[in-house]
Amino acid sequence: MSTWLRLRCIGDRVVALAIAVVVSPVIAVCAVLVRRHDGGPPIIGVERVGRGERVFRMWKVRSMRADDRSGLASGLTLSGAGDDRIPPIGRRLRSYYLDELPQLWNVVCGDMALLGPRPESPDFVDPIDPSWRNVLAVPPGIAGPTQVIVGDWEREVIASDGDGTAYRSEVLPVKLAIDAWYIRSSSPFTDALVAMTLARRLLPWADSSALEQRIFAA
């Protein structure tokens, strides 16, 4: 792990705690709305693989229907565009990334970072693959460059992928390549560029071309 990423770990936990305090009322409101919708658990923990191949529970405001007592939906762990397991309230939460806010607690606990490779389900991680070993050497992030570069395409592939085969063979190699670039290029400037570019998910006028050019030129 680079010097910058090591230095950032403590800072991330402090910043995440401060943000969590500020947004806790928002999380509470989202949880109440989800609970009122179908009576299922509003906050759920999904298994993800983190640094050092350690499996941890990543916390989320539930955005899919609750098919079991834990609040998880049945079927594939992936969800794409038009997934009928996602009710209208879930789509609204996802459109503004409100479902990801509880992951601030994962950062405070040291399971995750604010920025980094998005953590993957154990079903799709191959720790023997050198590409995975590289990604699993750093803390996963609440947000990362793959969301900007391949997020829309990823959802389209998943929507037509019945068993995750296309996601595994087509999407994952691209995501791993982008994450490898992020790890190699880790610096305050890279994080600032990724953070600003992620704003395009909320601000229509934001531009992602600068980040795309740096990644594709690597």
> Mind summarizing the main beta sheet?
2 strands, antiparallel
Radius of gyration: 17 Å
Note the total helix count.
Answer: 9
Label the structural class: mainly alpha
Strand content of the residues, in percent?
Answer: 5-15%
Global mean pLDDT? 89
Order of helices and strands: HEEHHEHEHHHHH
Describe the strand arrangement of the main beta sheet, using strand numbers. Answer: 1-2
> How does the overall form come out from the CA principal axes?
globular
End-to-end Cα distance, whole Å, is 19 Å
How many β-strands, per DSSP?
A: 4
Can you lay out the helices and strands and say which pair or pack?
Elements: H1 3-38, E1 43-49, E2 55-61, H2 88-95, H3 103-108, E3 113-115, H4 130-135, E4 141-143, H5 145-149, H6 151-159, H7 165-184, H8 188-198, H9 209-217
Parallel strand pairs: 3-4
Antiparallel strand pairs: 1-2
Question: How would you describe what is shown here?
Answer:
There is one protein chain. The chain is mainly alpha-helical and 218 residues long. It contains nine helices and four strands, in the order αββααβαβααααα. The strands form two sheets. The protein has a two-stranded antiparallel sheet with strand order 1-2. It has a two-stranded parallel sheet with strand order 3-4. The two termini are 19 Å apart.
Summary tags:
single chain, 218 residues, two-stranded parallel sheet, 9 helices, 50% helix, globular
Brief rundown of the structure:
The protein is mainly α and 218 residues long.
